[in-house]
Input
Amino acid sequence: MNGKSNDSDLRAVKISESTVRRLSIYLRLLQDLEGTGQETASSEDLAERAGTTAAQVRKDLSAFGSFGKRGLGYSVAELLRTLREILGLDHRWKVALVGAGKIGSALFTYRNFQRRGFEIDAVFDTDPVKVGQLWGSSEILDDSLMETELRQRHIDIVVIAVPSDAAQAVADRVVAAGVEAILNFAPVRLRVPASVAVRNVDMVVEMEGLAFALSSR
Amino acid sequence: MNGKSNDSDLRAVKISESTVRRLSIYLRLLQDLEGTGQETASSEDLAERAGTTAAQVRKDLSAFGSFGKRGLGYSVAELLRTLREILGLDHRWKVALVGAGKIGSALFTYRNFQRRGFEIDAVFDTDPVKVGQLWGSSEILDDSLMETELRQRHIDIVVIAVPSDAAQAVADRVVAAGVEAILNFAPVRLRVPASVAVRNVDMVVEMEGLAFALSSR
DNA sequence: ACTTCCTTGTGAAATCCTTCACAAAGCTAA
DNA sequence: TTAGCTTTGTGAAGGATTTCACAAGGAAGT
Output
């Protein structure tokens, strides 16, 4: 929009994972703020709510451009729009879920997902009892259809929610089918090519972190 | 002058969260290795499986002492024992679950929890329909009993799996009841005293991290 | 014993991330 | 317009974490 010295080559600068995490948190805060009708927010406001520092907020944002007004802060509406764009949430992402167990089911019904632009377009399982069942409007598909369906439906992100001993095999097939982003709930480190983005949600690791914290007292 | 006290004073050295995370991952790898009958593992072995570097593995471990044998590597059995001790998994931890919804339920039946030394001893919910129901051997308790039960049962860790607008209030009560470790599944940043350890499991943040990664191509 | 090979443990260097601190910019009021 | 406040954006400093690289320890064979 402006012709400032900013040159906004988003691709060039390396953004750390922690920065991206915080951006996601700022986004959520801003959504809350939008609800309250507050129109601007300072880096100090955001920092306090996000549990970080004002300088950190400004640094995080400054990697992408200048979005604030000095003396005023950031426009909630504008920063919301900007963050959504930065995070790639300005369009919907097609998600497939592999594993229709308890965790898969919890995830499927998790409203925040759909609301944030992630739509689960396919569910796979190996269990013949589950295959064919309807989850919402989508039928649980047989595991063997995975590769073809992932391609045909142009799935962007796959959520792996299978037992840990099956996870790597699923990951291999998913990668072979051209998917480049995986959210892994299985308690294993998946080995994938560097071009594939993986995020792990590992409850046991977090619990053990708490156990460690409690023990070091 | 100064009593340059380093040596093996475990409490004194500051261990980073990322180190603790990796220790937990090494522990899991070693459990797998134990199953295969492999008796020793080098830092290189562990690093490859954990998706890190050999130097990192050695640094992580060296913060706690010297557990390896030069030329040989680490004894799987011994390192297992040591890591369990370091992480505080040499005894069981009493866990309470607040929120008997989908996520709570998935967690409750998650076998890996119990297996790793975490036993869920109490479940709370506000919904009168759920209160009184039996989950495994434990009855779902009314939310209002939370403070007293947490104290009476000497709960170490509370898992918060309630909607985000209720999470902070639950956290406040839990902290007031003397609990010092919280695993939070609600998509909010809890504000707690510094003495309380909090770990967040936030699926939306992870998904948005993937969206960002996909967008930056 | 000696030699060779392997792998640890660890200072030092390099890299990455956060905090500091302040000039510059925007707003309001007179 | 100028003065007084406020808050951003950002180099530079400071800290933390990771990687490097190698001396020293240990095993196994001769």
Observations:
- Chain B has a mean pLDDT of 93.
- The longest helix of chain B spans residues 17-36.
